[in-house]
Amino acid sequence: MPVELTILAWSMVLLLVHIFAAAHVKTKQYGAKWNMGARDERLPPLAPLAGRLSRAEANFKETLPIAIVALIGVVLAGKASEWTAMGGWIWLGARIVYLPLYAAGIPVVRTLFFLASLVGILITLWPLLGL
Asked: Hey, what's the signal peptide range on this chain (predicted)?
């Protein structure tokens, strides 16, 4: 199996971590009844940690489709290589580190890891651009 698909599978695990981390702290704040309900009621703003985890989840979901296209695309196009695998691992590794940095409220270093993840995506995507 191409390593790019393994990276993609691990990224789905990371997506679940994002979803459940954010949901866990929201449930701690708003209660189990809120979590199991229709969530129609107006709620007070999220506490700082819950807000950061929710924003980190949204940020991951914004860039995940690009990574999916890049990782599957190079496999389908027969352009997978050591470079595309390295780009995928850079992307995934940076995204793994990004989550606790965001949760801890560490601003500048978090952004550097976000930028590293974009570099990883671009390395993987490059062979598909036909340049």
From this structure: none
The CA distance from 126 to 29, in Å, is 43
Structure confidence by residue, pLDDT tens digits, 6-64: 999 999 999 999 999 999 999 999 888 888 888 888 888 999 999 999 999 999 999 99
How far is residue 75's CA from residue 85's CA, in Å, rounded to a whole number?
Answer: 10
All domains of the chain in start order, with CATH: 3-128 (1.20.120.550)
Question: Could you write out the three-class secondary structure of the chain?
Answer: CCHHHHHHHHHHHHHHHHHHHHHHHHHHHHCHHHHHCCCCCCCCCCCHHHHHHHHHHHHHHHHHHHHHHHHHHHHHCCCCCHHHHHHHHHHHHHHHHHHHHHHHCCHHHHHHHHHHHHHHHHHHHHHHCCC
